[in-house]
Amino acid sequence: MLPPQTEATLIETHLIALRAYWQQYEFSIENLDIIQENIRTFSVRLPLIGAFSAGKSSLINSLLQDNLLSVAIDPETSLPTELHFAPQESITLRRKNTMPLPLSRDALKAQQFGEHDPDNVVDITLPNPILAKLNGMTLVDMPGWESGITQHSLAIDNYLDRSAAYCVVVSVDEGVLKESLRKIIEELAIHDKPMMLVITKCDKKRPEDVEAVVSHVQAQIEKLAKKPLLAVCRTQRRNATEWATALPVLLPLQQQFWHQAIGLPVQKCINDILIRIEQLSQGHNQTLEEIESERELLAEQYQRMQEDVQQITTRLHEQRNLAERAIVDDFASRMNGQLDTLTRALLNGEDVSGTIGHALRMSYSQGVERYLKPVIQKELGQLQLQEELQMQDVAYAHGFKSNESGTEIIKMTLAYILPAAITLITRIPMGKFLTPFIISALEGLFQRGSQELIQRQQQEEARRHVINTVIPSCCSKAAPDIARGLSNTIDDVMQAISRSTDEAMAKVQQTLDLKVRDLHTEKAAEAQRQQTWQADSMALKQMLAQLQVYNHG
Length: 553
Hints:
Elements: H1 5-24, H2 29-41, E1 45-49, H3 56-64, E2 81-85, E3 90-94, E4 101-102, H4 105-109, E5 121-126, H5 129-132, E6 138-141, H6 150-157, E7 166-171, H7 179-190, E8 195-200, H8 207-225, E9 232-234, H9 241-246, H10 251-283, H11 288-337, H12 339-348, H13 353-381, H14 407-424, H15 431-447, H16 451-456, H17 459-548
């Protein structure tokens, strides 16, 4: 994969030297191996989302000028299909808990994927010039859907953190933004995800009708997203030129991903080496007693920070109830806003997993952003030992002298780990704990719900039943899962802080060990030199004595 060239070329130029320095100063080579593997496999996704039969597969076929993907897809068994550039073509079924399975083009067309698992992914590499121009970006043909929550969840939980943007695909025949798409766009808006729009099958309508659809759908999306689309494209059934022309608009976003995923970790490696060099150079002016004092100070600061982390974790769990109540209240409000839909579903035995699932996901995502994330940021901010400390102003090359405050060690650590920890807050896949609730709650409250009401078909009584029984029951069933999800988020963030702190402190401890070793080495060398000098002196004295005999001639 070819990431953005300027930063990538610089890094590639320096990697061999960096590896040599990394080994010379005795860091674990595993860290650089991980970075190099990330460089090799780097790719940012562009998921294509849309209703079933919106024309996503045909759109990709037209873009690639290759009749590769099946357009006669069974929505019940289709899987996300990822396409990216490689010198050799390959088609592989990546399976969750077993080995990847090679596929032929015929098997891909026939969707012969074996036992269906929605977490499986079809991975396709092609030596296609269009894909080559995307600098390693991966197009993702997501399964279409009309309702339900499964595909919606996959598009968010599996791709939100790995995507530069989302491509919303709408057929000109649809004319409007369908409810299933509206729901996912609302959730993407919470996470401030960029979007582009492609209107397909434009050759089926008159140009003025196409423009009316484009304007209407664009206005709908931008109203939900609260910001302009990256691009708006019109495509025909065998012509995706306008989309191909628009795709490069995503490359700057990919550069941001590259910088975050590769550039910053490389910079951190360089800083780690500079810090160690500075510390080792200062070690030549230190005694063993001073180094031991520094070691004790470090241990004291580390213990204090770990205690602070534990106290903050406890306080966050105590404050979790506010976020939980807000999410449950918003969940109830959203369901009351869908009262007619829920009532009709109750009377007709319809599937409302999409309606309730979306309401729950929106409430949870919004609650995390509004109530949990600010509290975590505030609490983590208290780990900074000086209020005036700015993350970008941290002195990375501080020498950690024994007569100075050890707080700089903590500051340096926080400068690296706090931004990552804050990002972690919104990266917890909700499907881990919401999906079980959705399945169990809906089966009990709707699909096998009030048979008496279904038989009697009494609208008003059904409304009262939804208001007084169904919605409170959904909230009570959801509350424990919401609480568990919030707790898991808090624990994940704080554990990330602890792990990063452990790693940073281990590096400083290793540097101190190297100082001690160098001092011992220096003493051994000094002793060797003394022995040499003494031996040489004795030899010279004997030689002199032998020569001095002749002084009395």
